[in-house]
Design brief:
By secondary structure, the chain is mainly alpha-helical. The protein has 5 helices and 2 strands; from the N terminus they run ββααααα. 66% of the residues lie in helices and 6% in strands. Helix 1 packs antiparallel against helix 5.
Length: 146
């Protein structure tokens, strides 16, 4: 029985709707960035490298999550409706795609900045649980997990 009655919309101004799920992603990214700024692990990178790593990871999560959802769960729909490919506000992110996207982002970052997998993996593994925690809170608010 599903008695969850929490709106997934945080607030609305005219046609614009801010969703809790997106806010949770932003909160996870922000807290992860703060951790990176102030942690011993984050100090292994200079300021430009830290900023770049955060950008790479955000793009990996968002693009990978969306592309993964499209390919794994609903390819036929998006082939028939290509105008909906970027309509993330209608839902559609995949953990599997996000994981692959972050792996690709870390690989690209590592190649560009000449870092080892252990250096970057240590940093990513210490921040990832924060992002996953907030993403799952967003899933719960959307009544995807109860």
């Amino acid at each position: 029985m599903n008695d969850w009655n929490f709106s997934p919309v945080m607030f609305q101004i005219g046609p614009f709707q801010a969703h809790w799920y997106g806010f949770m992603y932003a909160l996870g990214f922000a807290i992860g960035y703060l951790y990176l700024l102030f942690s011993k692990r984050g100090k292994q990178l200079n300021a430009a490298e830290r900023d770049s790593l955060v950008l790479y990871v955000i793009l990996g999560v968002v693009l990978g999550g969306r592309i993964g959802y499209i390919l794994i769960y609903n390819l036929a729909y998006y082939v028939a409706n290509p105008e909906k490919l970027l309509a993330v506000w209608e839902g559609g992110m995949s953990f599997h795609g996000g994981l692959i996207g972050v792996a690709i982002a870390v690989w690209l970052f590592r190649k560009k900045y000449k870092k080892t997998y252990l250096q970057i993996g240590d940093i990513i593994c210490s921040i990832a649980p924060v992002g996953l925690f907030f993403a799952k809170i967003g899933n719960f608010i959307n009544a995807e997990l109860y």
